[in-house]
UniProtKB/TrEMBL annotation, chain B:
It holds the Pfam family zf-HC2. Residues 13-45 form the Putative zinc-finger domain. This is Putative zinc-finger domain-containing protein. It comes from Ideonella azotifigens.
Length: 205, 201
């Protein structure tokens, strides 16, 4: 997971000092407190630290690259205006990803993307999008197509689990849903994605 | 830690949790239970191998990367279009929330709020300083009154749970074989194991 490592390194170098998870969390909490006090420089520091992760997350969740920048900045406008409502009961990253999750869904609503369940949608054929063009192999292109068939909520759980390495409780906090919903979404998504693997079948149990 | 493997029909629980097992985000009890199941189940070991492939495929896939400076420039324009924030007495509100959380969790008020406890929630349910030394599972139809009676009979303190696999963490006065055997004989108890013995993670 070299990209993940580099993202983590970047975050640490931006925030400086103690590189332990606790040290990082403490620094992020201080940044949020400074943002709540109206310090724009703190907002920009937090923005730089989260930009790569949220780009990835929102890109994966929405599957609409054109919506990512807008949803990301909308997320940080909420961070700016609502920093004083951050209550410290969750990690800063959980709070920010939760805002991004809601902003991603809202951006999709505005975009009025036909949902996967719609009988006759008008989306471009799979394979046309930038994500497909970025894909380095046939398997990766197949993966992008399979992900495109899932709902944004399912894609969010998949990305938060596999790429961001979050636990199901934390994902439930982000998506504001019961942990069983997270588990069910992940199980369903894996069944679909598993069909891509050599010899893979959808039926599991 | 001695943990009885899930029963042969317990594949479903294991399969559901495999992504988080692989990602290392499960708590020690869940992890130990899956380790125990995997040791005796070739089918779930094969599923774990597939899970590794899926996770690797996801992690390796390229991400569209935007330009952070451009994004920041756009954000500055948006902020400039809005009236400046008025600084607020945030420390007061945070401290109030922190105190509330501390009272709810039954722990002493933390002197520095930045170092707020981020332990998994199952550890936050009990009293501070009480370490779990046993794990217990009840039959699905066990009533709350029966659970309370079982805890009271054994002198156990409930430290946490239920976990995703319906295990409860207990602090027994003495978690020896005799105490565990007594627990297992109580109505509704289907599993009782010590967390002290053994070297599982």
């Amino acid at each position: 997971m070299s990209l993940l490592d580099s993202v983590a390194r970047q975050a640490r170098s931006l925030l400086g000092g103690d590189t332990s998870p606790d040290g990082l969390e403490a620094r992020e909490r201080r940044l949020v407190a400074r943002i709540a006090a109206g310090e724009q420089r703190a907002l920009e520091d937090l923005y730089r630290a989260y930009h790569p992760r949220l780009q990835r997350f929102l890109g994966r969740m929405t599957h609409q690259p054109g919506l990512v920048d807008e949803a990301l900045n909308d997320t940080f406008l909420v961070v700016w205006h609502r920093a004083d409502s951050y209550n410290g009961l969750s990690k800063v990253s959980t709070w920010i990803f939760g805002i991004a999750y809601r902003k991603g869904l809202k951006a999709l609503q505005r975009f009025d993307e036909p949902q996967p369940d719609d009988a006759h949608d008008t989306r471009a054929e799979p394979g046309d999008g930038p994500e497909q063009q970025l894909a380095s192999s046939q398997l990766q292109r197949d993966l992008q197509r399979a992900l495109a068939e899932l709902s944004p909520e399912h894609r969010a759980v998949v990305d938060l689990t596999y790429f961001h390495g979050l636990g199901y409780r934390e994902i439930a906090d982000i998506a504001d849903c019961p942990v069983d919903t997270v588990k069910t979404r992940m199980f369903y998504a894996r069944r679909r994605l598993r069909a891509l693997l050599p010899g893979g079948k959808e039926d599991w149990l | 830690m001695k943990v009885v493997p899930l029963d042969p029909g317990g594949h479903a629980d294991v399969l559901v949790l495999l992504p988080w097992y692989l990602g290392g985000s499960l708590d020690a009890v869940e992890r130990a239970q899956i380790d125990a199941h995997l040791a005796g189940c070739a089918r779930c070991r094969a599923a774990l191998a597939e899970e590794r492939q899926l996770a690797a495929l996801q992690a390796e896939s390229a991400s569209p990367t935007g330009n952070v400076n451009q994004g920041l420039a756009a954000l500055r324009q948006q902020l400039a279009a809005n009236p400046p924030r008025r600084p607020q007495a945030t420390r007061g509100r945070w401290a109030a929330w922190g105190s509330l959380a501390a009272v709810l969790a039954g722990v002493a008020v933390l002197p520095v709020l930045w170092q707020h406890e981020t332990e998994p929630s199952y550890r936050g349910l009990g009293s501070a300083g009480v370490a779990a030394n046993a794990v217990v599972k009840f039959r699905a139809d066990t009533t709350e009154a029966q659970i309370r009676a079982a805890l009271s009979d054994s002198g156990a303190k409930l430290v946490g749970g239920p976990t995703a696999t319906q295990l409860y963490l207990l602090a027994l006065p003495v978690a020896n074989a005799e105490a565990l055997a007594r627990l297992r004989q109580l109505p509704g108890v289907t599993l009782a194991e010590s967390l002290d013995a053994g070297g599982a993670p």
